[in-house]
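Quick review question:
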């Protein structure tokens, strides 16, 4: 599905606080609930997980939901994916592809102990945010002369996001006793958190799309997402080289 083209901005268009407020609030909404490092494992949660054994279904559901709601890079990518999707059918398809991707690699990565350096995978996740922002800006059509398949891209980046989740779950040092059941519970929590984040985004987007400023200032929001994506890449690569 091709993204809706963004009309060029007029240099004579007067700036108004509401026109600028909504796109930046969407990006800030994704960034504010975060901690210093993407997917960071809170010390209290980590200590609790290391002490328990056996199946703790509801505890892991809670941890999964908390992890997704505070995962600003996941939320930014999700915002980019649904930015120009108006029908719930299309939103459902793309969100399902993303969920399929990150669920597969998260479960497989933890169960089989496939670890990827946290800085590297988080840099790739930041790159996914930048990729989607450029896609929304129509950059690939101008640069490459064709539109890459957005569904395949969403699934592939879903795989990457899943490895980001699995790398942090491995940091939990979960007991092998009840591992599979706890992983499934964690994944259910991730999907619940994703639905909560998606609901908040759709409420804001629904309001904004009813205003005349949406198509005029969608460019601003996607440039902000592009900048945030590259900032995440730079932050994680800096951490990799100095750690």
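Suggested answer, residue by residue:
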């Amino acid at each position: 599905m091709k993204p809706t083209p963004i009309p060029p901005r007029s240099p004579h268009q007067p700036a108004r606080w509401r026109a600028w407020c909504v796109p930046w609030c969407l990006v800030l909404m994704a960034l504010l609930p975060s901690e210093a490092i993407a997917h960071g494992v809170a010390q209290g949660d980590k200590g609790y997980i290391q002490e328990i054994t056996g199946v703790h279904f509801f505890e892991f559901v809670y941890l999964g939901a908390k992890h997704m709601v505070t995962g600003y890079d996941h939320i930014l990518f999700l915002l980019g994916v649904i930015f120009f999707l108006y029908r719930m059918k299309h939103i459902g398809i793309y969100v399902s592809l993303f969920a399929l991707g990150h669920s597969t690699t998260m479960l497989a990565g933890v169960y089989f102990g496939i670890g990827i350096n946290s800085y590297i995978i988080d840099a790739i996740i930041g790159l996914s945010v930048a990729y989607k922002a450029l896609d929304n800006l129509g950059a690939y059509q101008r640069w490459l002369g064709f539109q890459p398949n957005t569904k395949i891209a969403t699934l592939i980046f879903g795989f990457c996001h899943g490895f980001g989740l699995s790398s942090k779950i491995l940091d939990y040092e979960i007991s092998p006793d009840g591992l599979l059941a706890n992983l499934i519970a964690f994944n259910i929590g991730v999907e619940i958190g994703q639905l909560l984040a998606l609901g908040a985004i759709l409420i804001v987007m629904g309001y904004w799309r009813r205003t005349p400023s949406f198509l005029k200032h969608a460019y601003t929001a996607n440039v902000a997402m592009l900048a945030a994506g590259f900032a995440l890449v730079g932050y994680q690569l800096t951490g990799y080289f100095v750690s």
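Why it works: The first helix runs from residue 17 to 31. Residues 124 and 233 are 7 Å apart (CA to CA).
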